[in-house]
Amino acid sequence: MQKNKLNIWIRIAVAICGIALFLVLFVPIWRIDLAAPQYPEGLRMLIYANKLGGDVAIINGLNHYIGMKTLHAEDFIEFSVLTYIIGFYALLFIIVAAIGNRKMMYALFGLFAAFGVLAMVDFWRWEYNYGHNLDPKAAIVVPGMAYQPPLIGYKQLLNFGAFSVPDIGGWIFVAVGIILLICVITEIRFTAKLKKTGRLSSVLLCISALSFFTSCSAQPKAVKLGIDQCDYCKMTVSDARFPVEVITTKGKIFIFDDLHCALGFIKENETIKKSIKDIYLCDYTGQHTFIIAENAYLIKSADLKSPMGGNIAAFSNIDSMNIVMEKIKGESTIWNELFK
What angle do CA 297, 300, 303 make, to 5 degrees? Predict the structure, then answer.
């Protein structure tokens, strides 16, 4: 049996994961944020293991107008069993850590991964039913419109922007899954080496893997001309030379048809301004790829005739900018002057 024993540091990591899962019982697992002009501070729905929290009453009142069902914890069987499931997994982690059997840890990983997949499928099914089964006699009926919130990420629903993301409990689940995966990989690939370098190799592998996951960041997405709407003026984006995208630290992406709209939006939304991670400007020439605003060469000219009168063009290199400046009357500028 000794050959199937886990390294002490792996056992400690698994035990810590079990303790962390107990904390999930007391904190929100998921949240859905809603933002609209009439609610500048936004609305939030929090999903716990056994209840709903946040601005549920207000959200139910709004959803009544578009025919969506009201949300009540007692209507969901998940809230009656999820607490016990999470408690079961927390105890199972601690038992595996106490016994220290490698095969038991592999089985635990399979069960935990299956639970994660089933939970996300069930959540998607709930969102689908919630957003598609509408009352045909509702006060507001938009033919063909569904109001399914995003499983994760951002989605525009009429004049509301919906942002769905794990909350504290959800991130604990993610962290536990990653740590358990690292433990499994470590045991599979380095069992023989762990007898000599177990502590150091396990710690370094955990640090490098976690660094990889935390370093991932959102990137600008391709703008769909004639489909995507500007998040400030609500006009359809129609000119590929001028779009701007603002990405927040949460990975939320705002699209604008003109730099004028982007600057106006940021000026009027102090909360968004504080959470900006990157701002991308579209290259005026070539394939109209996105450029980080601080690295762009800029021209300001009335001859550019951008959609909303910002009349500022961005370039990835100075040669492209000089070629355009030979054809129009304008002046070069820098991003820091615009974004004061």
Answer: 125
- What's the CA gap between 160 and 314, in Å, rounded? 30
Task: For the sheet with 276-282, list strands across it.
Answer: 253-256, 244-248, 276-282, 290-292
pLDDT in tens, 249-295: 888 899 999 999 999 998 898 888 888 999 999 999 988 899 998 89
Q: Which DSSP letter does residue 133 get?
A: -
d(CA 4, CA 176): 22
Q: Please give the model's pTM, rounded to 2 decimal places.
A: 0.53
Contacts of 192 (CB under 8 A, 6+ apart): none
Long-range residue pairs from 264-267, CB within 8 A, at least 24 positions apart, any chain: 264/232, 265/231, 265/232, 266/339
Q: Residue 114 half-sphere exposure, CB side, CA atoms within 13 Å? A: 8
Judge contact between 332 and 340, C-beta under 8 A: no
From its phi and psi, is residue 100 left (phi > 0), alpha (psi between -120 and 50) or beta?
left
268-292 as b/e: b if 16+ CB within 10 A: ebeebeeeeebbbbbbbbeebebbe
Alpha carbon distance 220, 256 (integer Å): 12
Q: How far is CA 206 from the centre of its chain?
A: 23
Name the β-bridge partners of 162. 34, 155
